[in-house]
From TrEMBL:
Source species of the chain: Neoroseomonas lacus
UniProt entry tagged with the keyword Oxidoreductase: yes
Protein's name according to its UniProt entry: Carbon monoxide dehydrogenase
PANTHER family, A to Z: ALDEHYDE OXIDASE 1-RELATED (PTHR11908:SF132), XANTHINE DEHYDROGENASE (PTHR11908)
Gene3D superfamilies, alphabetized: Aldehyde oxidase/xanthine dehydrogenase, a/b hammerhead, Aldehyde oxidase/xanthine dehydrogenase, molybdopterin binding domain
Amino acid sequence: MPDINLADPTTMKFGIGQPVPRQEDPTLLQGRGRYTDDLSVAGQAWCVMVRSPYAHGVIKAIGTEAAKAMPGVLGVYTAADMAEYGPMRSVLPLKNKDGSPLINVLRGPLAADKVRFVGDPVAFVVAETKLQARDAAEAVEMEIDALDAVTEASAAAAPGAPQLYDHIPGNVVLDFRFGDADKVAEAFAKAAHVTTLPIRNNRIVVCSMEPRSAIGEWDAADGRYVLHVGSQGVFGLRNQMANDILKVPVEKLRILTGNVGGSFGMKASAYPEYTCVLHAAKLLGRPVKWTDDRSGAFLSDCHGRDHEVEASLALDAEGKFLAVKLVSYGNMGGYLSTVGNLMGTGNFSKNIQSNYATPLLLVETKNVVTNTTPVSAYRGAGRPEGNYFMERLIETAAREMGRDPIALRKLNHIKPAQFPFSAPSGSVYDSGDFSALFDKALAAADWNGYAARKAASESRGMVRGRGIGNFLECTAPPMKEQGELVFEEDGSVTIVTGTLDYGQGHWTPFAQVLHAKLGVPFDSIKLVQGDSDRLIAGGGTGGSKSLMASGAAILEAADMVIEKGRKAAGYVLEAAAEDIEFADGRFAIAGTDRGIGIMELAAKLRTIGPLPQDVPNALDSRTVFNEAPMAYPNGCHICEVEIDPDTGIVKIDRYLSVNDFGVIVNPLLVEGQAHGGIVQGIGQALLEHVVYSEDGQPLTGSYMDYGLPRADDLPSFGFESAPDPCKTNPLGAKGCGEAGCAGSLPAVMNAISDALGGKHINMPATPEKVWAALHA
């Protein structure tokens, strides 16, 4: 962590650890943000997609003549027109348990031979206006021979199920195993007690506030594409689009991302529409714009979650965990998203361990294609689920064995003396005091005062329950990240880095890190993330790693600035560079009061010259930070619910979390991130569920049928910190963006199970399910 001068009032206000309001908010709250659909490029035409109304079928013909003859139509395109482009595919080097690679699915921009889910794009129309394009899209004729569909992963893997692809027998693209099956079986055989639960990880729609949108441009003079699009990182998306799909050198594609209204994993990778608008722009010689509507988003945006799991925990006679096992089916949808296979494989394996010293684990997952919208990452992407499975197992085992669930957890917690702790998942935990944090959460939640609250609920005819959600999640794996600092002529300093803010508020904490390190004025700092032409590296935003990656890159670039500044200040102050010291934003000759501020020095270098060869002519610096290891944010959520026995309606009455996020740069933003994750976890636990009919038609295709949590579904959240700085990155941060989901899923569902007398029900805990369980 960089040194902070606590005597400096500006550092106290804007430095690391201060609750500085988000610098973006005045712009966004006044409606002055620039999202993709806000853009209009001169001469642009409009694109509308034509989507399959069938979940499964053979394409016999796509009739385009009537649509082409309609007013304003510039072109109608099918898969035959798009044969030059490469496919979208899974990029994960995952292997089956027999060592063979996963069976990949190569998806073109438009379906060519078969449609494989309702919403699968088969054509697109470009017209002068959006309404003209929409009218013409409705005139496209589809001759599709419908086939039987299958929507559940376990059903798709069963004998006799409809087959989506000839090269994927049994629809299983990956039969994955992590762990030593023989040792785990031995541990279960000798266990004094085994708890097993069937757990459904329900499918959800991502529901970002901003629907996806894209504008494609073609510069014929330079032979170069430009794509304006909401994303989670322009560097990675440019590489995927250029290398895999467009088949052009990366310098022949520029990706620009402005403000992004939410993503949660869904906007990280390429989609068919992006290739379509670029193709049409090149062919027509004019920009082409596409913006989805909410109904289209329900069909075409990658969904989240969707696993059928049998979870088991083996314990000895003392209650110590011997092994944990997950046997699951993962629903991939009709195609493989870029990272869709990761959730039920690598991320289950990394996160089922949680903060317990379980010596053995086994994860076996069959990833299966079905006639549904493809599934990809969603906030936490397997991390919340791993913790959820473990906490439900522990709570159920405690009840079955007649043990105190608090004592059972603490008995199995990894102890501080065990760090660094090598987990069977392959992770090495560097820090944490899990039992002490647990005790703090119990005290803050007034655990011992629960009996009085329960009696008060009962006096009003209500049923009360409480639940614990211990969690530890593994952040995203290491990636290289750019850090660049540019001292601009107008007196500002620009940070350039390859993460991307889609609601997190990166500008403010990144500026706090730079201000604390270099002392540059906080209000003069700018942030550039969304222009691929400015980047030489970038891991994008995902997996709760942004501050660890970009923050470390900023610090590394700042060290380069200081080194340059010593040489430049030595020249300006007529002293040897080795005699120059830097502190509090000022270069000074050691032992004297002669010095120059960093901003004054940057300005002076632009006006003096010529300079000696060994003196830099600017303080600008650029670096690529070479990967921070995973970090392990952890904490404990405690939830109390009240249930109306007449209706089954669940009310969340009290909610508190205590978290170890390591060094917290901005507590205001961290608490906001925690709240957002908690609310999304509550949504999955109580309300959200994508439902399909037997023939693959989505029955929850709009907000008329699909429930999202609202303000009146939520309590006020208690939030406290118990930080134990991370030892593997220079900021000591651990990541916080997805942790709210990791703690809320088990806390809410354990509370409901407690209210139901220990009965297990699956998410979402709808009033119908809860009422039935109460009255069974």
